[in-house]
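hey m, so remember when u said the tokens were messed up on ur end? i reran from scratch. heres the input so u can diff it against urs
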Amino acid sequence: MTGLLHLVRHGQTTANVAKILDTLPPGAPLTPDGSEQARRFAAERPGPAPAVLLSSVARRAQQTAGLIGTGWQMPVTVVDGVHEIQAGDLEGRSDEDAIKAFQQVVRSWHFGDLSAALPGGESASDLFERYLPTVEQVRRDHLADGDAYLVSHGAAIRLVAARLAGVDSGYAHRHHLPNTGEIVLRPTGTGWELVSWADAPSHLDPMG
């Protein structure tokens, strides 16, 4: 039986708490609560060890995956291409205008304008170009052996999962991911289908 792909958002960070747009690696570290979220994620998922545990290059993702890996007694492999979509000139800002500008561009991506981008930042097309090949490599290399867990980032995960599984754009835009929330996909034929999508209120965290 083919394994599932678990796209897991990292634990809470200092930037999440301060509502800072934090997209450029290495980025902010986990808070103590974020570390506990990662430990709890591992503890709440007993059973057969997954085929692989992966992380983006960002500090928060590596810390989250490391704590999960400690709980599961398995190594973490860092992979390129799956870091957060880049906010460009808005990086490091937390003011209302910046948050609104970022959220408006995210909305435009979900509703089909893949070329939209903030000044100095990435478009959804840029994200897909670097992220999707890594997902397909994970599928080829690991899912025949069991589940794969990839610790990544909220906005990127939602866009990628919606594209891969054909999720309704309105649903994907409204349903954000809490820290250590996951979207689970099942490979089917040459595509993917949605298994589950965790969600949380979106207005408090621009990077969800």
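this time it looks ok to me. The first helix runs from residue 14 to 18. if urs says something different then somethings off w ur setup not the seq
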